[in-house]
Design brief:
Blueprint: E1 4-7, H1 10-18, H2 31-34, E2 39-46, E3 52-62, E4 69-73, H3 86-99, E5 102-107, E6 112-117, H4 118-126, E7 140-141, H5 143-155, E8 158-159, E9 175-180, H6 186-192, H7 195-207, E10 210-213, H8 219-233, H9 240-253, E11 258-265, E12 268-278, E13 281-289, H10 298-312, E14 317-322, H11 334-341, E15 346-350, E16 354-357, H12 360-372
Parallel strand pairs: 4-5, 13-14
Antiparallel strand pairs: 1-2, 2-3, 3-4, 5-16, 6-7, 6-15, 8-16, 9-14, 9-15, 10-11, 11-12, 12-13
Helix pairs in contact: 7-10
GO biological process, one term: cell wall organization
Protein name: Aminoacyltransferase
Family: Belongs to the FemABX family.
């Protein structure tokens, strides 16, 4: 018998997430407020006794001139992904979303498939034959993930392939870099950093770099160097209003949901970063740094302060978010991967994003439109 699925209140949604060790920051009610171009709804799965057993934040994006929607559950929903009867969870979701006017459903199962240790990633980067991380031998496999992928395919779900240029998927990153904190003291984590990282942290301290917590009023200072970072690293920056909306929405839900850190040196902001927390999972979300005074190592200083604070908050995972899957020296994102590998963590591959076309014609039209953007 399938679960019953219906819209729930933000309070019910938040209480369910709060009772779990963690959920994605994109699966809390406030994330819907960050995305004004989408209509957000909290969904709940109920068992036969009326108990809430799963939740999902679904974002609806309307098709121009049509009352039809793309329904998107980023890094969700929050359900029992390893349940042997996965159909009981997903079929009522599809039926509900179709009744709401969805022509296509996109979701990102928070399911890990493979992991590569820092040593394995370094070896892959050094190997001239290794062109992509996915081709390198993994340190650990999660066999249950492949069963989940098979079941999704049998149900008619289609896996979105990672972007060909740099390994980032069109939606959320499939490959991320994480530092496990569970059962480790801060001294253990510091010992896990490579020699360069430890040296740079000391260098920043000696040079007088001060990392402080910022507030809403410091977001323009963050955004100023974020725009500089975007130009240097070749990505399109988000407007200041996005970060102001993000701060207002997330901190209203939980004062610790979003933090802003700024690295000062002699009265100048050299680096800044945002940190997000849900339960025992902490994410380094957005980072920015200027090209000036790079020799005082503000990036290492800010990350170490964030990692220290995350540990104090009881984090089990410090998540550096997306990394490139492409290991060729010509790839401009390889330096960022090397920076993250220096923390001694691990590269992690998720199951990726999956689509279910409820209306194949409209779904194909959307695919065509996205490919031409």
């Amino acid at each position: 018998m399938s679960f019953r699925l219906k819209a729930i209140t933000r309070e019910e949604h938040l209480a369910f997430v709060a009772a779990r060790p963690s959920a994605s920051h994109m699966q809390v009610p406030s994330w819907g407020d960050v995305k004004p171009d989408w209509r957000a709804e909290s969904l709940g799965w109920f068992d036969g006794s009326g108990r809430l057993v799963g939740v999902g934040l679904v974002l609806f994006r309307p098709l121009p001139k049509l009352k039809r929607y793309l329904a998107y559950l980023p890094e969700g929903p929050v359900i029992e992904w390893d349940a042997p009867d996965l159909e009981r969870w997903l079929e009522p979701m599809l039926a509900y979303l179709k009744a709401q006017g969805a022509f296509s459903v996109k979701m990102g199962p928070p399911v890990v498939t493979r992991r590569w240790s820092a040593e394995a990633v370094k070896a892959a980067i050094a190997d001239p034959q290794a062109r992509q991380l996915r081709d390198a031998k993994a340190t650990a496999h999660e066999p249950g993930a492949f069963d989940i992928a098979d079941r999704l395919r049998r149900m008619g779900w289609q896996q979105t392939e990672p972007g060909s240029e740099d390994g980032f998927a069109a939606g959320q990153p499939r490959y991320v870099f994480q530092v496990p904190f569970a059962g480790r003291s801060l001294e253990d984590i510091q010992r896990g950093l490579n020699q360069q990282w430890r040296r740079n942290i000391k260098k920043a301290e000696k040079a007088g770099v001060k990392v402080v917590l910022g507030s809403y009023d410091d977001l323009p200072a963050f955004h100023h160097i974020y725009v500089e970072t975007a130009e240097r690293d070749r990505f399109i920056p988000r407007p200041l209003g996005y970060f102001q909306r993000m701060w207002t929405a997330l901190t209203a839900e939980d004062p610790n949901r979003m933090r802003l850190y700024l690295a000062h040196h002699e009265g100048e902001v050299l680096a800044a970063a945002t940190m997000l927390t849900v339960g025992e999972h902490v994410w380094y979300s957005y980072g920015a740094s200027t090209n000036r005074k790079r020799e005082v190592q503000p990036n290492n200083a800010i990350q170490w302060r964030m990692m220290s604070d995350a540990h104090e908050l009881g984090a089990n995972i410090y998540d550096f978010r997306g990394i490139t899957d492409t290991l060729e020296e010509s790839n401009h994102l390889l330096g960022l991967l090397r920076f993250k590998v220096g923390t001694g963590g691990q590269a992690v591959e998720y199951l990726g994003e999956w689509d279910f076309p409820l209306n194949k014609l409209l779904h194909k039209a959307l695919d065509l439109y996205m490919s031409r953007r």
